[in-house]
Amino acid sequence: MDVEHVVGAPHPRLRPFVTRYSGYRLRSEPGIHRGLPSRSLTLVVTVDGTVDLDQGRFAALCGGLHDEAVIITHDGFQHGVQCDLTPLGARAFFGLPAGELAATTVGLDTLDAPAGELRERLQTATTWRDRFAQLDLVLGRLLRPVKQQVEVAWAWQRLAAGATVGEIAAEVGWSRQHLSARFAAEYGLTPKVMGRVMRFERANRMLRGQRRPTLTEVAAACGYTDQAHFNRDWRALCGATPTEWMAAELPFVQGSEASGVAEW
C-alpha cells in the first residue's frame, strides 16, 4: 500500500466553516472504503478519477451529516482533497441549512458551486500547499453572510460538550420535542442521534491515534455502558464492529495519519 496524506488548515476567515483540508493519494488493492458518520459535512474534489458511491460517480461532491456509513468503491487508486465542513458551512457556501443535505450526497455543481473550475485549479497546482491555497481562494469567493437560530446553535455546542438532550432543552426553555424538531430542521439529525454520532466520532479518533487504547478503555472513556453497547452502536453507525473495522481499514487510516502534515 502506498499512501500520501497531507493535512492543511484553511485560511483563518474560513475556519468557522471549514475545519481542515485533507489531501490524499492512495494506491492499494481495489476494494471498498467506509465514509464514517461525524459532525462534519464532507466536500471532496478529486484530482484524478471519481468517487464511486451507490448514488453515482462524482468528480466533486458534498455529503451531508449521516448516521450510517457511506460505502465508497474504488479501483485501488484515489487522489483528491477532502474538506471537512462545519454545518454552518452549508449556509456560508451554498446558502442552505445542513439539514437539506442530510443522509445524501450530491454533485458539487448542483449546489451552484464552480466544481469544474475548482477541479481544474487542483489539477494545475503542483503541490498540496498550492492546492489548499486554491481551495481558500474559491471557497472564500463563495462566502455569504450567515444567520442561524441562537438556540439551535447553542444546542449543537452543548451537545458537543456532552450535555444530554434533557439538559439542553431546559437551558433553552423548549420542550424536548420542539428542540428535536428545530435541531433536525437545521442539521438533518435529531439531537439524540447526533449525540450518538459525536460519541462514535470520539471513539473513532481514539482508535486512530498513535497510542491505541484497548476497546474497553475506549468504551469507558466515551460513555458506552459496556462492551456490548459499544459494539452495537458501532455496528449501527459503521456497519461493522470496532474489531472488524480495524482489521479492514485501520492500516490505511494509520498510514494516512502518520504521513506528512502541512499547517499554516
Automatic annotation (TrEMBL):
Source species, domain of life: Bacteria
Domain HTH araC/xylS-type: 149-248
InterPro entries in alphabetical order: AraC_XylS_family_regulators, Homeodomain-like_sf, HTH_AraC
Keywords of the record: DNA-binding, Transcription, Transcription regulation
Name of the protein: AraC family transcriptional regulator
The species this protein was found in: Lentzea atacamensis
